[in-house]
Design brief:
Elements (H helix, E strand, L loop, with lengths): L1 H8 L6 H35 L6 E4 L4 E7 L3 E7 L2 E6 L3 E4 L1 H6 L1
Antiparallel strand pairs: 1-2, 1-5, 2-3, 3-4
Length: about 100
Amino acid sequence: MITMLQAAAQQPQGAGWTFWVMIGAMILIMWLFMWRPESKRRKQMQEFIANLKKGDKIITAGGIHGTVKEVKETTLLIEVDSDVTLRIEKNMVVADNSAQTAQK
């Protein structure tokens, strides 16, 4: 037990800078692989939502597929089926369904 305490007390004094280099490297790696791609995706989604127009086919966060019938400042009126319309918040749109329906 005493030898472990003595070994811990005898750490080299120059090792402090390597700790900060490793912390900096971890922060850089987290920024490159987590924060940066997420902020890019968020910007693309905000741009997509801002450019929604009548006739766009969308998918909501709840999995509802529909066609945009009316665009207001914060809401959308979407047609889900013939004579079935829903008013939803713009931020609940998660995907553009136009490309998927064109492939079928």
